[in-house]
Amino acid sequence: MRTPVPDARPVALTVAGSDSGGGAGIQADLKTMEARGAFGTSVITSVTAQNTRGVSSIHPVPTEEVRAQYDAVAGDFDVRAAKTGMLGTAEMVETVTDCVEDAPFPVVVDPVMVATSGDRLLDRDAERAYEDLVAASAVVTPNTDEAAVLTGTEPTDESTAREAGAELVEMGAAAALVKGGHAPGEEVADVLVTAETEAVFVHPRVDTEATHGSGCTLSSAIAAHLARGTDTVAAVEAGVSFLQRAVRYPLDVGEGPGAVHHLAEIRDRAARTDAVESVESVVDAVVAADARGLVPEVGLNVVGATPYAERPDELAAVEGRIARTRSGVRPNRGVRVGASSRLAEFLLAVREVDSTVRFAANCRFDGDVEAAMDSLGWSVVRVEPARDDEADSEAETAAREAVLNALEPDEETPAAVVDGGAVGREPSARVVAADAGTLADRLTGLAAAVETP
């Protein structure tokens, strides 16, 4: 018989409706809380018949049963934070308020009024009953439509979002996060207001309709971080970052737009080991092929991304690059996550256009390499090199924009992207591929076609 090894996790509670489609409500909340390191418990306020296309029916749970669920959880678990979601009726809002207003833990209030599909989830009387629940909240997280209903101020930009947030704080909320996802624009600005400070979290808008469950996911992530003892501003920032990836990599399920991917960040972390091993396999192939003819003065590097990577520090690369020696080539150190900046930025830019590309390497570029690429029948795209008077950060931004402008989403991604260099910047070729095997084949084939200098 083996000895158990218990895993202690902070407990978070969700008080919300059930989504039979699994993308929002209680189901989304519990997935998110688990992904964010909390043990999720639940109080179900209603049972819905819904999917990715819409809500066909809503059956409220009797309020006495809701109270019984809450008492059962609160009487046994050390709840560290809670969140509320779809409540539906004035009586339900009042019941939930009575349960949590004196609770010894912070409460995140997501004033769910309309589903992503457009279906109304809250009756008119319940809208008026929300004032006391908002006053009991540590954070209230309305979108622009909900903020307008609660405050009478319609947020159309950062300034009016601050106004709406300030009104919610005046109503008694310790903090108000006015979400900008429903507002127009290429960027989304989520505005956090407290009595002491303001913060704006700006991020690029993702061109997708698969946002089912986004509000539930954000509020649950914030609650999970509060349960772990994170302060409010940091918990909100972490929640916003978590949701960005969940929206960027949605789940293609159902016949509607789909749902946000509550476990995208966990999947990313789990895939990093495979990315490291894949980069190592490319390095082994380059070393075995004695690819000295491809190594530029700065050294050759290889980077690999998981299917969910978003930042350079999440990509695997060779630490110290691969150097040319008298007897061949060798990596200076091993492969680790976060070992590349510029090449990683380049690969992320390519992935904005073609998400199937997951690997890249930089190599020497001159007339011999160009001729070898031609002889192999490679498709090659040229980009303008960074100006020699640009700072490194400016050069990286310019290089990213050059890649985005050069590649076409509806056309086949080239085998390499090259630039002719500039004063102080060596000409370079960056070879890309969807998988490590293809990248290794391209690099070793190119090395064989290039005369070693």
Automatic annotation (TrEMBL):
Keywords: ATP-binding, Kinase, Nucleotide-binding, Transferase. Pfam families: Phos_pyr_kin (PF08543), ThiN (PF10120). Residues 279-443 form the Thiamine-phosphate synthase ThiN domain. Coiled coil: none annotated. InterPro entries: Aldolase_II/adducin_N_sf, HMP/HMP-P_kinase_dom, PM/HMP-P_kinase-1, Ribokinase-like, ThiN. SUPFAM superfamilies: AraD/HMP-PK domain-like (SSF53639), Ribokinase-like (SSF53613). GO terms for molecular function: ATP binding; hydroxymethylpyrimidine kinase activity; phosphomethylpyrimidine kinase activity. This is Hydroxymethylpyrimidine/phosphomethylpyrimidine kinase. Residues 19-261 form the Pyridoxamine kinase/Phosphomethylpyrimidine kinase domain. The keyword Kinase applies.
